[in-house]
Structure of ABC-type quaternary amine transporter:
Amino acid sequence: MIEFRDVTKRFDDGTIAVNGLSLVVEAGTITVFVGPSGCGKTTSLRMVNRMIDPTSGTVLVDGRDVLSVDPPTLRRGIGYVIQQAGLFPHRTVLDNVATVPLLSGWSKAKARSRAAELLELVGLPAELGKRYPVQLSGGQQQRVGVARALAADPPVLLMDEPFSAVDPVVREGLQDELLRLQAELDKTIVFVTHDIDEAVRIGEKVAVFREGGILAQYAPPAELLASPADDFVASFVGKDRGYRSLSFVDPSGVEIGTVKTVSEPAAAGEWQLVVDADGHPQGWVAPDGTVLPGGSLYVVGTPIRGALDAALSSPSGLGVAVDEHGRYAGVVTARQVLDVIESHRRG
Ligand SMILES: Nc1ncnc2c1ncn2[C@@H]1O[C@H](COP(=O)(O)OP(=O)(O)OP(=O)(O)O)[C@@H](O)[C@H]1O
Protein backbone atom coordinates (compact mmCIF):
# COMPACT_ATOMS: atom_id res chain seq x y z
CA MET A 1 0.00 0.00 0.00
CA ILE A 2 1.17 3.53 -0.79
CA GLU A 3 -0.16 6.48 1.14
CA PHE A 4 0.19 10.21 0.55
CA ARG A 5 -0.59 12.19 3.71
CA ASP A 6 -1.10 15.88 3.07
CA VAL A 7 1.91 15.97 0.76
CA THR A 8 3.08 19.27 -0.73
CA LYS A 9 6.02 19.87 -3.04
CA ARG A 10 7.26 23.39 -3.57
CA PHE A 11 10.28 23.71 -5.84
CA ASP A 12 13.08 26.19 -5.12
CA ASP A 13 11.67 28.69 -7.61
CA GLY A 14 8.40 28.76 -5.66
CA THR A 15 6.39 26.51 -8.02
CA ILE A 16 3.89 24.46 -6.08
CA ALA A 17 3.84 21.23 -8.06
CA VAL A 18 1.75 19.20 -5.58
CA ASN A 19 -0.57 20.80 -3.08
CA GLY A 20 -1.83 18.94 0.00
CA LEU A 21 -2.19 15.54 -1.66
CA SER A 22 -3.82 12.84 0.44
CA LEU A 23 -4.70 9.48 -1.07
CA VAL A 24 -4.23 5.77 -0.56
CA VAL A 25 -3.13 3.41 -3.34
CA GLU A 26 -4.35 -0.06 -2.35
CA ALA A 27 -1.92 -2.97 -2.64
CA GLY A 28 -2.36 -5.15 -5.72
CA THR A 29 -4.27 -2.54 -7.73
CA ILE A 30 -3.56 -0.32 -10.72
CA THR A 31 -4.10 3.30 -9.74
CA VAL A 32 -3.86 5.95 -12.44
CA PHE A 33 -2.84 9.59 -11.96
CA VAL A 34 -4.34 11.62 -14.78
CA GLY A 35 -4.67 15.31 -15.55
CA PRO A 36 -3.52 18.05 -17.89
CA SER A 37 0.16 18.85 -18.40
CA GLY A 38 1.98 20.36 -15.43
CA CYS A 39 -0.54 19.40 -12.76
CA GLY A 40 1.94 17.45 -10.62
CA LYS A 41 1.45 13.83 -11.66
CA THR A 42 5.11 13.07 -12.29
CA THR A 43 6.22 14.94 -9.18
CA SER A 44 3.75 12.90 -7.08
CA LEU A 45 5.00 9.66 -8.61
CA ARG A 46 8.64 10.54 -8.03
CA MET A 47 8.03 11.23 -4.37
CA VAL A 48 7.24 7.51 -3.97
CA ASN A 49 10.75 6.36 -4.91
CA ARG A 50 12.48 9.49 -3.57
CA MET A 51 13.61 10.92 -6.88
CA ILE A 52 11.96 13.98 -5.34
CA ASP A 53 11.36 14.52 -1.62
CA PRO A 54 8.25 16.32 -0.35
CA THR A 55 8.45 19.79 1.17
CA SER A 56 5.88 18.77 3.76
CA GLY A 57 3.64 15.81 4.50
CA THR A 58 4.48 12.12 4.39
CA VAL A 59 4.67 9.43 1.73
CA LEU A 60 4.41 5.90 3.11
CA VAL A 61 5.12 2.62 1.35
CA ASP A 62 3.78 -0.34 3.30
CA GLY A 63 3.41 1.87 6.34
CA ARG A 64 7.00 3.15 6.28
CA ASP A 65 7.83 6.81 5.72
CA VAL A 66 9.96 6.73 2.56
CA LEU A 67 12.24 9.41 4.05
CA SER A 68 13.35 6.84 6.64
CA VAL A 69 14.65 4.48 3.93
CA ASP A 70 17.77 5.24 1.90
CA PRO A 71 16.95 5.66 -1.81
CA PRO A 72 18.88 2.62 -3.19
CA THR A 73 17.20 0.25 -0.71
CA LEU A 74 13.80 1.82 -1.32
CA ARG A 75 14.16 1.57 -5.10
CA ARG A 76 15.02 -2.11 -5.00
CA GLY A 77 11.39 -2.74 -4.11
CA ILE A 78 10.01 -0.23 -6.62
CA GLY A 79 10.20 -0.76 -10.38
CA TYR A 80 10.18 2.34 -12.57
CA VAL A 81 9.08 2.52 -16.19
CA ILE A 82 9.24 5.72 -18.24
CA GLN A 83 8.23 6.97 -21.67
CA GLN A 84 10.66 5.85 -24.44
CA ALA A 85 11.57 2.97 -22.10
CA GLY A 86 14.88 4.61 -21.07
CA LEU A 87 16.91 1.59 -22.17
CA PHE A 88 20.71 1.56 -22.23
CA PRO A 89 21.51 1.95 -25.95
CA HIS A 90 24.90 0.19 -25.81
CA ARG A 91 23.59 -2.96 -24.12
CA THR A 92 21.65 -5.79 -25.71
CA VAL A 93 18.00 -6.18 -24.84
CA LEU A 94 18.77 -9.22 -22.68
CA ASP A 95 21.50 -7.37 -20.77
CA ASN A 96 19.20 -4.38 -20.29
CA VAL A 97 16.69 -6.63 -18.55
CA ALA A 98 19.43 -8.45 -16.61
CA THR A 99 20.91 -5.20 -15.22
CA VAL A 100 19.14 -5.18 -11.87
CA PRO A 101 19.63 -8.89 -11.07
CA LEU A 102 23.35 -8.43 -11.90
CA LEU A 103 23.54 -5.41 -9.61
CA SER A 104 21.89 -7.50 -6.89
CA GLY A 105 24.80 -9.95 -7.12
CA TRP A 106 23.31 -12.70 -9.28
CA SER A 107 25.65 -14.67 -11.52
CA LYS A 108 25.65 -13.66 -15.19
CA ALA A 109 24.08 -16.96 -16.25
CA LYS A 110 21.29 -16.76 -13.68
CA ALA A 111 20.57 -13.08 -14.44
CA ARG A 112 20.37 -13.78 -18.17
CA SER A 113 18.09 -16.75 -17.75
CA ARG A 114 15.81 -14.64 -15.55
CA ALA A 115 15.91 -11.91 -18.21
CA ALA A 116 14.93 -14.42 -20.90
CA GLU A 117 11.95 -15.52 -18.78
CA LEU A 118 10.87 -11.90 -18.38
CA LEU A 119 11.05 -11.23 -22.12
CA GLU A 120 8.72 -14.16 -22.61
CA LEU A 121 6.42 -12.87 -19.87
CA VAL A 122 6.00 -9.51 -21.63
CA GLY A 123 5.34 -11.27 -24.93
CA LEU A 124 8.65 -10.78 -26.75
CA PRO A 125 10.31 -13.58 -28.75
CA ALA A 126 13.59 -14.80 -27.22
CA GLU A 127 15.67 -13.95 -30.29
CA LEU A 128 15.05 -10.22 -29.74
CA GLY A 129 17.24 -10.50 -26.63
CA LYS A 130 20.36 -10.35 -28.81
CA ARG A 131 19.39 -7.05 -30.44
CA TYR A 132 20.16 -3.53 -29.31
CA PRO A 133 17.29 -1.20 -28.31
CA VAL A 134 17.44 0.85 -31.56
CA GLN A 135 16.74 -2.35 -33.48
CA LEU A 136 13.31 -2.68 -31.84
CA SER A 137 10.00 -0.95 -32.55
CA GLY A 138 8.68 1.58 -30.04
CA GLY A 139 6.15 -0.92 -28.69
CA GLN A 140 8.81 -3.61 -28.30
CA GLN A 141 11.07 -1.16 -26.46
CA GLN A 142 8.26 -0.39 -24.04
CA ARG A 143 7.83 -4.10 -23.35
CA VAL A 144 11.55 -4.36 -22.63
CA GLY A 145 11.19 -1.39 -20.26
CA VAL A 146 8.43 -3.23 -18.40
CA ALA A 147 10.47 -6.46 -18.31
CA ARG A 148 13.45 -4.56 -16.92
CA ALA A 149 11.34 -2.94 -14.21
CA LEU A 150 9.98 -6.37 -13.22
CA ALA A 151 13.42 -7.99 -13.07
CA ALA A 152 13.93 -7.53 -9.35
CA ASP A 153 10.33 -8.67 -8.76
CA PRO A 154 9.42 -5.44 -6.96
CA PRO A 155 6.03 -5.33 -5.21
CA VAL A 156 5.52 -1.76 -6.46
CA LEU A 157 5.70 -0.52 -10.04
CA LEU A 158 5.73 3.16 -11.00
CA MET A 159 4.92 3.86 -14.64
CA ASP A 160 5.27 7.40 -16.02
CA GLU A 161 3.49 7.81 -19.37
CA PRO A 162 4.98 4.47 -20.40
CA PHE A 163 2.91 4.06 -23.57
CA SER A 164 2.55 7.61 -24.81
CA ALA A 165 5.29 7.39 -27.45
CA VAL A 166 3.61 4.63 -29.45
CA ASP A 167 0.71 4.73 -31.91
CA PRO A 168 -2.86 4.12 -30.65
CA VAL A 169 -3.14 0.54 -31.88
CA VAL A 170 0.17 -0.58 -30.34
CA ARG A 171 -0.81 1.34 -27.26
CA GLU A 172 -4.02 -0.60 -26.82
CA GLY A 173 -2.05 -3.82 -27.19
CA LEU A 174 0.38 -2.72 -24.48
CA GLN A 175 -2.51 -1.76 -22.19
CA ASP A 176 -4.08 -5.22 -22.65
CA GLU A 177 -0.71 -6.78 -21.98
CA LEU A 178 -0.32 -4.80 -18.77
CA LEU A 179 -3.78 -5.90 -17.59
CA ARG A 180 -2.91 -9.53 -18.37
CA LEU A 181 0.44 -9.25 -16.56
CA GLN A 182 -1.20 -7.61 -13.57
CA ALA A 183 -3.76 -10.43 -13.29
CA GLU A 184 -0.78 -12.77 -12.98
CA LEU A 185 1.62 -10.65 -10.92
CA ASP A 186 -0.65 -8.69 -8.58
CA LYS A 187 1.67 -5.68 -8.19
CA THR A 188 0.83 -2.32 -6.71
CA ILE A 189 1.00 -0.12 -9.79
CA VAL A 190 0.85 3.66 -10.04
CA PHE A 191 0.46 4.72 -13.65
CA VAL A 192 0.73 8.33 -14.87
CA THR A 193 -0.96 9.46 -18.07
CA HIS A 194 -2.59 12.57 -19.51
CA ASP A 195 -4.98 10.41 -21.52
CA ILE A 196 -8.32 9.92 -19.81
CA ASP A 197 -9.24 7.00 -22.10
CA GLU A 198 -6.10 5.17 -21.03
CA ALA A 199 -6.85 6.02 -17.40
CA VAL A 200 -10.38 4.60 -17.38
CA ARG A 201 -9.29 1.58 -19.40
CA ILE A 202 -6.56 0.35 -17.08
CA GLY A 203 -7.19 2.00 -13.73
CA GLU A 204 -9.06 0.31 -10.92
CA LYS A 205 -8.99 3.74 -9.32
CA VAL A 206 -8.25 7.02 -11.03
CA ALA A 207 -6.91 10.19 -9.41
CA VAL A 208 -7.74 13.28 -11.50
CA PHE A 209 -5.33 16.16 -10.87
CA ARG A 210 -5.95 19.77 -11.76
CA GLU A 211 -3.56 22.65 -12.25
CA GLY A 212 -1.67 23.67 -9.15
CA GLY A 213 -1.15 20.06 -8.09
CA ILE A 214 -4.59 19.66 -6.56
CA LEU A 215 -6.45 16.36 -6.46
CA ALA A 216 -9.83 16.99 -8.06
CA GLN A 217 -11.35 13.51 -7.67
CA TYR A 218 -10.23 10.03 -6.70
CA ALA A 219 -12.66 7.29 -7.69
CA PRO A 220 -13.15 4.11 -9.70
CA PRO A 221 -13.55 4.86 -13.45
CA ALA A 222 -17.27 4.10 -13.57
CA GLU A 223 -17.95 6.58 -10.77
CA LEU A 224 -15.76 9.21 -12.40
CA LEU A 225 -17.74 8.96 -15.61
CA ALA A 226 -21.14 8.74 -13.92
CA SER A 227 -20.65 11.46 -11.31
CA PRO A 228 -17.75 13.84 -11.89
CA ALA A 229 -17.05 15.85 -8.72
CA ASP A 230 -17.10 19.25 -10.46
CA ASP A 231 -17.05 21.06 -13.81
CA PHE A 232 -13.31 20.61 -14.21
CA VAL A 233 -13.54 16.82 -13.90
CA ALA A 234 -16.66 16.74 -16.10
CA SER A 235 -14.92 18.61 -18.90
CA PHE A 236 -11.68 16.67 -18.50
CA VAL A 237 -13.50 13.36 -18.58
CA GLY A 238 -15.04 14.55 -21.84
CA LYS A 239 -18.34 14.90 -23.55
CA ASP A 240 -18.55 11.25 -24.65
CA ARG A 241 -18.55 10.15 -21.06
CA GLY A 242 -22.14 8.85 -21.23
CA TYR A 243 -21.20 6.54 -24.07
CA ARG A 244 -17.84 5.62 -22.51
CA SER A 245 -19.49 4.72 -19.23
CA LEU A 246 -21.12 1.83 -21.12
CA SER A 247 -17.71 0.15 -20.81
CA PHE A 248 -18.71 -0.62 -17.25
CA VAL A 249 -22.27 -1.80 -17.81
CA ASP A 250 -22.92 -5.48 -17.23
CA PRO A 251 -24.10 -7.16 -20.47
CA SER A 252 -26.47 -9.61 -18.77
CA GLY A 253 -29.88 -9.28 -20.32
CA VAL A 254 -28.50 -8.77 -23.83
CA GLU A 255 -30.16 -11.43 -25.95
CA ILE A 256 -28.07 -13.12 -28.59
CA GLY A 257 -30.20 -13.88 -31.66
CA THR A 258 -29.30 -15.74 -34.83
CA VAL A 259 -28.83 -14.94 -38.50
CA LYS A 260 -28.28 -17.19 -41.50
CA THR A 261 -24.59 -17.98 -41.97
CA VAL A 262 -22.99 -19.07 -45.24
CA SER A 263 -19.51 -19.99 -46.40
CA GLU A 264 -19.93 -18.59 -49.95
CA PRO A 265 -21.66 -15.27 -50.71
CA ALA A 266 -24.80 -15.50 -52.89
CA ALA A 267 -27.94 -13.34 -53.18
CA ALA A 268 -30.72 -14.78 -51.04
CA GLY A 269 -33.10 -11.87 -50.47
CA GLU A 270 -32.02 -11.54 -46.86
CA TRP A 271 -28.92 -10.56 -44.87
CA GLN A 272 -26.44 -13.40 -44.41
CA LEU A 273 -23.19 -13.56 -42.51
CA VAL A 274 -20.17 -15.11 -44.20
CA VAL A 275 -18.10 -17.29 -41.86
CA ASP A 276 -14.96 -19.31 -42.59
CA ALA A 277 -14.52 -23.02 -41.89
CA ASP A 278 -13.57 -22.26 -38.27
CA GLY A 279 -16.64 -20.10 -37.71
CA HIS A 280 -14.81 -16.74 -37.84
CA PRO A 281 -17.01 -13.97 -39.32
CA GLN A 282 -15.73 -12.61 -42.65
CA GLY A 283 -18.35 -10.08 -43.73
CA TRP A 284 -21.96 -9.65 -44.81
CA VAL A 285 -23.97 -10.47 -47.92
CA ALA A 286 -26.76 -7.92 -48.48
CA PRO A 287 -30.17 -9.20 -49.71
CA ASP A 288 -29.17 -8.29 -53.31
CA GLY A 289 -25.94 -10.30 -53.05
CA THR A 290 -23.56 -7.35 -52.48
CA VAL A 291 -20.68 -8.34 -50.20
CA LEU A 292 -19.91 -5.84 -47.44
CA PRO A 293 -17.21 -5.76 -44.76
CA GLY A 294 -18.36 -6.45 -41.21
CA GLY A 295 -18.44 -4.02 -38.31
CA SER A 296 -16.80 -4.43 -34.93
CA LEU A 297 -17.27 -7.73 -33.12
CA TYR A 298 -18.85 -8.15 -29.71
CA VAL A 299 -17.23 -10.74 -27.47
CA VAL A 300 -20.09 -12.28 -25.48
CA GLY A 301 -19.91 -11.46 -21.77
CA THR A 302 -17.80 -8.31 -22.16
CA PRO A 303 -19.27 -4.88 -21.28
CA ILE A 304 -22.29 -3.62 -23.14
CA ARG A 305 -20.45 -0.88 -25.03
CA GLY A 306 -19.01 -3.53 -27.35
CA ALA A 307 -22.49 -4.91 -28.11
CA LEU A 308 -23.85 -1.47 -28.99
CA ASP A 309 -20.79 -0.63 -31.08
CA ALA A 310 -21.08 -3.94 -32.97
CA ALA A 311 -24.73 -3.24 -33.81
CA LEU A 312 -24.14 0.41 -34.81
CA SER A 313 -21.14 -0.40 -36.99
CA SER A 314 -22.70 -3.36 -38.80
CA PRO A 315 -24.06 -2.76 -42.33
CA SER A 316 -26.97 -5.09 -41.59
CA GLY A 317 -27.82 -3.42 -38.29
CA LEU A 318 -27.12 -6.76 -36.65
CA GLY A 319 -24.04 -6.70 -34.42
CA VAL A 320 -22.01 -9.88 -34.67
CA ALA A 321 -21.34 -11.59 -31.36
CA VAL A 322 -18.39 -13.98 -31.06
CA ASP A 323 -17.03 -16.28 -28.38
CA GLU A 324 -13.63 -15.76 -26.76
CA HIS A 325 -11.99 -17.53 -29.70
CA GLY A 326 -13.55 -15.11 -32.18
CA ARG A 327 -16.06 -17.63 -33.53
CA TYR A 328 -19.59 -16.61 -34.52
CA ALA A 329 -21.94 -16.87 -31.53
CA GLY A 330 -24.99 -14.91 -32.74
CA VAL A 331 -26.20 -11.36 -33.37
CA VAL A 332 -27.45 -8.41 -31.31
CA THR A 333 -29.55 -5.39 -32.25
CA ALA A 334 -29.02 -1.82 -31.09
CA ARG A 335 -32.70 -1.60 -30.08
CA GLN A 336 -32.41 -4.56 -27.75
CA VAL A 337 -29.07 -3.39 -26.28
CA LEU A 338 -30.55 0.08 -25.65
CA ASP A 339 -33.52 -1.51 -23.87
CA VAL A 340 -31.09 -3.32 -21.56
CA ILE A 341 -29.18 -0.04 -20.95
CA GLU A 342 -32.48 1.69 -20.15
CA SER A 343 -33.44 -1.01 -17.69
CA HIS A 344 -30.02 -0.69 -15.98
CA ARG A 345 -30.53 3.10 -15.76
CA ARG A 346 -33.86 2.63 -14.09
CA GLY A 347 -32.04 0.29 -11.67
N1 LIG B 1 12.66 20.84 -10.84
C1 LIG B 1 11.64 21.69 -10.97
N2 LIG B 1 11.76 22.97 -10.64
C2 LIG B 1 10.73 23.85 -10.74
N3 LIG B 1 9.51 23.50 -11.18
C3 LIG B 1 9.32 22.22 -11.53
C4 LIG B 1 10.37 21.25 -11.46
N4 LIG B 1 9.88 20.05 -11.88
C5 LIG B 1 8.58 20.27 -12.22
N5 LIG B 1 8.25 21.56 -11.99
C6 LIG B 1 6.94 22.18 -12.20
O1 LIG B 1 6.01 21.54 -11.36
C7 LIG B 1 4.75 21.43 -12.00
C8 LIG B 1 4.34 19.97 -12.03
O2 LIG B 1 5.20 19.25 -12.87
P1 LIG B 1 5.01 17.69 -13.16
O3 LIG B 1 6.10 17.25 -14.05
O4 LIG B 1 4.81 16.97 -11.89
O5 LIG B 1 3.62 17.72 -13.96
P2 LIG B 1 2.90 16.58 -14.79
O6 LIG B 1 1.49 16.62 -14.38
O7 LIG B 1 3.61 15.30 -14.65
O8 LIG B 1 3.03 17.14 -16.26
P3 LIG B 1 3.25 16.40 -17.68
O9 LIG B 1 1.99 15.67 -17.98
O10 LIG B 1 3.47 17.57 -18.61
O11 LIG B 1 4.45 15.53 -17.53
C9 LIG B 1 4.91 22.05 -13.37
O12 LIG B 1 4.47 23.37 -13.30
C10 LIG B 1 6.40 22.00 -13.59
O13 LIG B 1 6.82 23.03 -14.46
